[in-house]
Structures are given as structure tokens and as C-alpha cells.
Design goal:
single chain; alpha/beta; Rossmann fold; 6-stranded parallel β-sheet; binds NADP nicotinamide-adenine-dinucleotide phosphate; binds guanosine-5'-diphosphate-beta-L-fucopyranose
Length: about 325
């Protein structure tokens, strides 16, 4: 039985990682389409319908979203709310209308209740308000889970979702003010080393980490997430969301992350912490027990190696990177 898999958000960080895995695997009887906003503006129903009419997908991996780091979310909660509700409602409506056999959408561990017990698990998504910094994005994402249940209950559609922790890797968005912490620090550390005061000896340079460096994060390499996403599309037959995260023990502080980036760049200067900048959520420690039970042998890439590969990708692709 052949598949046509439409990957919305296919030109982004996660989409490009899935494309790389599929290009390596070359699965028979599967046509994979990786689309971006040039193919259709998914906030617009007609444009979305035209794309579904054109491609007639049998399966959808729905990644497309307005995405950003802490500082972008803090200042644009209304846009994150409205644009993501529009995109998600259009994609799920058209997936239903075109009888798509399965849709896997994407939530995030940052949408869980801010006041919660740890570790967070899949049953806790709606147990209280999210962190105020990204309530717009969080409620739009939670609505995906609600909408999935409604389509399944009323029509039997197999619409499900995954919940990644923070993701990083090649093809990330390195744009200042928009980006997540890893691409944000990569962009700024690269600038500090290569572009600012080029005559100044590196060991006299100081790199500023935003915030106190104390918050804790789990980071998954985009290559690993891509493999798990493809597994979910093929094997996970449940409407309930599933967390796709590294182990709780792999959680690191932002300060540790900064040290790892210093190693990745072989930066000889010093770090300082700018506590005038927001820290955001202190932690959002998620359990991957459900995933581990289904996939006990999955191996995550070593964090420092993944950071090194991402730093090298940025240096090698500086001209074309989104920054
Ligand atoms: P990204 O790199 O910012 O890519 C976003 C993708 O969505 C791009 O392909 C973009 O197309 C597309 N898109 C945005 N607005 C669109 C619109 N109006 N119409 C059509 N396409 C549109 O994002 P990402 O980091 O890969 O995130 C992918 C998914 O993972 C998202 O659902 C995000 O919420 C989720 N997630 C991300 C993280 C993380 O740390 N990055 C963590 C948890 C969950 P263009 O290239 O044309 O702009
Ligand atoms: O990835 P990030 O921006 O978002 O990480 P969240 C923010 C943390 O990293 C804060 C520190 O503690 C920042 O003070 N940080 C240090 C930096 N330097 C930088 C920098 O140069 N750039 C950035 N951005 N942060 C997001 C949610 O939360 O998680 C989104 O707001 C999304 O909705 C994403 O879901 C996965 O991890 O705090």
C-alpha cells in the first residue's frame, strides 16, 4: 500500500532533519513532500485546501507553526495564539476532508502547566495554566490535542501528536530576538569570536549568556527527533500524545549549555551572565517513560557531540543559515 506523506513545516529545523533521514532510508512505496509557506500559507483555508487538492496526501506530519524562543514568545503572545490556531484548524480540517489516514502533529514540553509536579508526563497537559511567557503558543498547541480527540470521537480520525522537549540542530532559526537558546547563543558566540573587535585577542573577549544560567532544559538533537517522528508515523496508533524527549538525567542548566558551546567553538574568552534578561521557565522536566517502554533500545546522540556538529554546521553554512 503506497503512502503520500505531506510534511507541513518541512523547510524548518525539524522538517529538514526528517528529510535527511528519509533521503538516507529511501523507503519504497512512499512519496514524501516537504512543504513550506511558499507552497501554501496555512493560515489561509483556501490556500491550504489547494495544497491538499494538489498533493492528495494519505498521511500528514504537521510541523508548520509560528515558532520562537522565550523572548519572541514574551512579546508576541497574541500572534502566536492566533496564527497557530488558524494553521492547526486548517490542516486538521483538510486532513479530515481529504480522508488522510493519519496525522501526527507537534506539541512542546513548554506547554505543560507551570505549577506542576515533576517529572511531567502526557496526562498532565491540561492540568493548569502554562508559564505566562508563552501562554499564546501553549494554548494554541493544547488545542491541537483537544481537536484531535474531537475528530477521533466524532469521525474516528487517527489524529495524534508528539511532545518534543527543546530541539536543536542544523537548519535551525538563528535569527536574533526570534531564536531559541541554542541557535541564539551560537549566532552571538560566532559574532563575538569572528566579527566583533577582530583585532582583540580572543582570551580578552567576554560572551554574555542571557539570564542567570540556572534554568534547566532537556535538549533533543533534531536528527534523533526525526527518527522518532518517523517511528510514530509508522507504529504509534493512539490519539493520546507521546513525549519525545531525552532522559530526565540528560537535563542540563543553561550555564552547562554555554560551556558546551564554548567547547564547540574552542572559545578562549570568558562567560558572563546577564541576569537583567529573563530566565523564563525554571524547568519543564518531562518523563520519556512512555517512549522508553515502546522503544527501549533507542539511542540519543551524545549532547556535546550534537552541539559540536551543530556549531560546525553553522560555521560551514554561515551564508545560507536563517539569521
Ligand atoms: P521552524 O524551524 O521555525 O520552521 C517552521 C516551519 O513552519 C517552516 O517550515 C515554515 O515555513 C512553516 N510555517 C510557518 N508559518 C507558516 C504558514 N503560515 N504557512 C505554511 N508554513 C508555515 O520550526 P521548528 O523548530 O522546525 O518547529 C517545528 C515544529 O516543532 C513546530 O510545530 C514547533 O512548535 C515544534 N517544536 C519545536 C521545538 C524547538 O525547540 N524548535 C520544540 C518543541 C516543539 P517557511 O520555511 O516557509 O517559513
Ligand atoms: O530556548 P529558549 O529561548 O526558550 O530558552 P524556553 C530560554 C532560556 O535560555 C532562558 C536563556 O533562560 C534565557 O535566559 N538564554 C541564554 C537565551 N542566552 C540566550 C539567547 O541568546 N537566546 C535565547 N532565546 N535564550 C521556549 C518557549 O521556552 O521553548 C517556546 O517559549 C518553545 O514556546 C520552546 O516551546 C521550545 O526553553 O525558555
Amino acid at each position: 500500500m503506497s503512502k503520500t506523506v505531506l510534511v507541513t513545516g518541512g523547510t524548518g529545523l525539524v522538517g529538514k532533519a526528517i528529510e535527511a533521514v528519509i533521503n538516507e532510508e529511501k523507503p519504497p512505496n512512499e512519496r514524501w513532500l516537504f512543504v513550506g509557506s511558499k507552497d501554501a500559507d496555512l493560515t489561509d483555508l483556501q490556500s491550504t485546501r489547494a495544497m491538499f487538492e494538489r498533493y492528495q496526501p494519505t498521511h500528514v506530519i504537521h510541523l508548520a507553526a509560528m515558532v520562537g524562543g522565550l523572548f519572541h514568545n514574551m512579546n508576541n503572545n497574541l500572534d502566536f495564539l492566533r496564527k497557530n490556531i488558524q494553521i492547526n484548524d486548517n490542516v486538521l480540517l483538510l486532513s479530515h476532508e481529504y480522508k488522510v489516514q493519519k496525522v501526527v502533529s507537534c506539541l512542546s514540553t513548554c506547554i505543560f502547566p507551570d505549577k506542576t509536579s515533576y517529572p511531567i508526563d502526557e496526562t498532565m497537559i491540561h492540568n493548569g495554566p502554562p508559564h505566562d511567557s508563552n501562554f499564546g503558543y501553549s494554548y494554541a498547541k493544547r488545542l491541537i490535542d483537544i481537536t484531535n480527540r474531537a475528530y477521533n470521537q466524532q469521525h474516528g480520525d487517527m489524529f495524534t501528536s508528539v511532545v518534543p522537549c527543546n530541539v536543536f540542530g542544523p537548519f535551525d532559526n538563528f535569527t536574533p530576538g526570534v531564536s531559541h537558546v541554542i541557535p541564539g547563543m551560537i549566532h552571538r558566540l560566532h559574532e563575538t569570536i569572528y566579527l566583533t573587535d577582530p583585532e582583540k585577542p580572543q582570551k580578552e573577549k567576554i560572551f554574555s549568556v542571557y539570564g542567570t544560567g540556572k534554568p534547566l532544559r532537556q535538549f533533543i538533537y533534531s536528527k534523533d527527533l526525526a527518527k522518532l517522528f518517523i517511528w510514530v508515523l509508522r507504529e504509534y496508533e493512539n490519539v493520546e500524545p507521546i513525549i519525545l524527549s531525552v532522559d530526565e538525567a540528560a537535563e542540563v542548566t543553561i550555564a552547562h549549555l554555554a560551556e558546551s558551546l564554548v567547547q564547540g567553538f574552542q572559545f578562549k574568552g570568558k562567560l558572563e551572565f546577564d541576569s537583567s534578561k529573563a530566565d523564563g521557565q525554571y524547568k519543564k522536566t518531562a518523563s520519556n517513560a512512555k517512549l522508553r517502554k515502546l522503544l527501549p533500545d533507542f539511542q540519543f546522540t551524545d549532547f556535546d557531540l550534537a552541539i559540536k556538529e551543530t556549531v560546525q554546521w553553522y560555521i560551514d553554512n554561515y551564508e545560507k543559515a536563517r539569521k
